[in-house]
């Protein structure tokens, strides 16, 4: 959904390496996002006759030994964060709702992320002739779910503020699908670049609302270097070698696009840090963590292989 599988591995290494200072006395993890964070919401929310890719092997084969709804052969970043904090794995919202009476008092957080979700509302894309083939869920939808569930997690407005203040909030990654969907449907890079301010604004609205509800520690990841993704390398294959970075083989203009998103996101985070100086808003630099692996892959183990890039149903690429 939001990235190829090798990009996802990069993000795991980032979190393990750089978030040691975040592991503190938190009571729970509240998570939002897309396929990089979804631990089973999409498969529970989808119609039974609409099979989700993550519901079959090889997804889940290495750690759980069966599909769990995660878009990974094993665990996701949120799983490593939970384990690092001594928590059980954070359950998906749809699963918690199904077993509300028996589980709500014992869980250490809820994961609202849905694979394929966008930061902007689905209407923003539909007005521009863009379809979301996976879901109509947006970050706003996920936030609404959280607000509806909040009274079940705490007893009063004051205790809810305390609960959220003692929680670690993971904001995605979110926003990648706001670009994946239009890129895969033939929209130009110039047009899609005009969407970025709206995407950043949607993320900012969610950050601000969560802080006003009581959140004090939020991790806000940036976008990955999409120009290094096997699906993008296949779709935008170019005979002009100048379009590619000499050291990585990644497509320059697509990575410039991702950096533009990240620049605006960091500016938005800085703005909210000034508005809410008591809050700890942490920018998670997925982009540069991933680039370390693309630049020096041998340092991180052997994962070069022929892979059929099927995100948009065409092509193969070496990665």
TrEMBL record:
Keywords annotated in UniProt: Glycoprotein, Hydrolase, Signal
Q: Record's InterPro entries?
A: GDSL (IPR001087), SGNH_hydro_sf (IPR036514), SGNH_plant_lipase-like (IPR035669)
Q: Which domain of life is it from?
A: Eukaryota
Give the signal sequence positions: 1-24
* Entry-linked Pfam families: Lipase_GDSL
Which Gene Ontology molecular-function terms are recorded? hydrolase activity, acting on ester bonds
Family recorded in the similarity comment: Belongs to the 'GDSL' lipolytic enzyme family.
Name the UniProt record assigns to this protein? GDSL esterase/lipase
Question: What organism is recorded for this protein?
Answer: Anisodus tanguticus
Q: What is the lineage of its organism?
A: Eukaryota, Viridiplantae, Streptophyta, Embryophyta, Tracheophyta
